[in-house]
Design a protein that fits this description.
By secondary structure, this protein is an alpha+beta fold. The protein is built from seven helices and 18 strands.
Length: about 300
C-alpha cells in the first residue's frame, strides 16, 4: 500500500519514555509503506532503530511535510498546529495523553487507522485560529496565533483584575475577576468550558468570550461572530500584573497603557479524522455524558 501523502512528518516528544515505543512502532510501519519520514531532533533514538529518517528542526519539518502525525496529548497537537498553520499542512493525532479531544486515534488501533487516513480515507475539518496582538506604550508586539484560546490572566496576586472589553469598537463591559478566555469552537471544550462557557460545534464561524471567576454572577460568556475584533484594556489604576497566553504558551505581559486585540487569524488548521469520526460521540466519551442514565444500566427495568 502506498499512501496519498508522500512526505510524512512526525511531531512530539519522541524520546520521552511514554512516547518512544508507540512512536517507534508507528514510524516503522509508515516507513514500510514507502513514505519519506521526517521527525524532530527528539526522534534520534527512533532514527537509529528504524533508519532512513530525516531529522529536521520544527520550521523545516513543517515546511517540507505533506502531513503531520502528532503523537502525544492535545498539547502536542496545539504546538504542532501553531507551527504548521502557515504551511497549510493537515494534522492527525495519536492520543497518549489524558483527554484527547484533538488527538482522537487510539494507540491500539493506530496502524490500521493511520493507514486508512494517509491513503485518503478520512474526514477533513478546517478549524479557525485566533490572532493576538498587543500594542501601545511605544510597543507593537508581533502577533501570535492560537488554535484553542487566547487568555488574559492575573499573575502573582490575590487581588482581582479590572479590565474592559470592546467588540468592533463598541464598548461591551467592565470586568473584575481572574481574567478572560477568548476561545475558538475548538477551544470551547478546553479552558473556556471549565470557566462555564458553552460547547460550540467545530464548524461554526464563531468565537466565545468567557470571564474567569468573575466578581459578579451577571458577567456571563458571550458568543461572537468570528469576524469580530475584540479589544481588551486593563483599568488605568490597576496594580495587578497581567499576562497573555496563546494555547498555554506565554505571549507576554499586558500593561494598563496597552491594548490586547484578538481576531480570527488568516491561518487555519486542517485536522484529519477517521472516516467514522463523530463529534457527539467524542463529547459523550470525553465528558461521560449519559453514564448515569437509567437507559445505560445493564440490569433490566422492572
Amino acid at each position: 500500500m502506498k499512501y496519498a501523502f508522500e512526505h510524512v512528518g512526525f511531531w512530539g516528544r519522541l524520546s520521552d519514555a511514554r512516547v518512544l515505543e508507540t512512536a517507534s512502532r508507528i514510524i516503522s510501519h509508515v516507513k514500510s509503506r514507502q513514505a519519506r519520514i521526517f521527525a524532530p531532533p527528539s526522534g534520534e533514538v527512533i532514527a537509529r532503530r528504524v533508519g532512513d529518517i530525516e531529522l529536521l528542526d520544527e520550521a523545516e519539518l513543517a515546511a517540507r511535510a505533506d502531513v503531520i502525525v502528532a503523537i502525544g496529548g492535545d498539547g502536542t497537537m496545539l504546538h504542532a498546529a501553531r507551527r504548521v498553520a502557515q504551511h497549510d499542512v493537515p494534522l492527525l493525532g495519536v492520543n497518549l495523553g489524558k483527554l484527547g479531544f484533538l488527538t482522537d486515534i487510539l494507540p491500539e488501533h493506530a496502524l490500521e487507522t493511520i493507514d486508512a487516513i494517509l491513503s485518503g480515507d478520512h474526514v477533513a475539518e478546517k478549524r479557525l485560529m485566533l490572532e493576538a496582538v498587543v500594542d501601545g506604550n511605544g510597543e507593537t508586539r508581533p502577533p501570535m496565533i492560537a488554535l484553542n484560546d487566547v487568555v488574559l490572566q492575573k499573575r502573582g496576586s490575590s487581588r482581582i483584575l479590572d479590565f474592559a472589553t470592546w467588540v468592533d469598537g463598541s464598548y461591551v463591559n467592565t470586568h473584575g475577576g481572574d481574567g478572560l478566555v477568548v476561545a475558538t469552537p475548538t477551544g470551547s471544550t478546553a479552558y473556556a468550558l471549565s470557566c462555564g462557557g458553552p460547547i460550540i460545534q467545530p464548524n461554526l464561524n464563531a468565537i466565545v468570550m468567557v470571564p474567569i471567576c468573575p466578581h459578579t454572577l451577571s458577567d456571563r460568556p458571550l458568543v461572537l461572530n468570528a469576524s469580530s475584533v475584540l479589544e481588551v484594556r486593563l483599568h488605568p489604576g490597576t496594580e495587578t500584573p497581567a499576562f497573555v497566553a496563546c494555547d498555554g504558551e506565554e505571549y507576554g505581559p499586558l500593561e494598563p497603557s496597552q491594548t490586547l486585540r484578538i481576531r480570527t487569524s488568516g491561518a487555519s488548521v486542517t485536522l484529519l479524522h477517521p472516516r467514522d469520526h463523530n463529534y457527539y460521540e467524542l463529547l459523550r466519551s470525553k465528558l461521560s455524558w449519559g453514564s448515569a442514565s437509567r437507559f445505560n444500566r445493564s440490569a433490566p427495568r422492572g
